[in-house]
Amino acid sequence: MKTIDIKILKQYPEIAKSITLQVSGSDLISFADKLVQDTAQEVEARIQAQNEPDELLTRQQVAEMLSVTLTTLWHWDNKNVLKPVRIGSKVRYRRSDVEQALINKGGQRDE
Predict the structure, then answer these.
(1) Other C-beta atoms lying within 10 Å of the C-beta of residue 47
(2) What is the CATH number assigned to the segment(s) 56-105?
């Protein structure tokens, strides 16, 4: 009996379409256990990431991170693309908000 690494099938899904597998019950149980374990670890990592305090970035850091000018950043604040956090007279941005804005905008620049 031949074995194939599942990573190969993930990397080349067209190969997976033409393969017929014969799986023993014990192999299926092992696979299911591994899948559940991997999923639990991923969920735990996400929960921990959500519970960590979010890093606050300066205007300059965000502008450099997004490769935009401070003026563009100001316009994005006014358009609610980004939501600044005001601490006294200082303006900061949550890293998670900046990353989410990138996802929502699809990486498009709005200068």
Answers:
(1) 9
(2) 1.10.1660.10
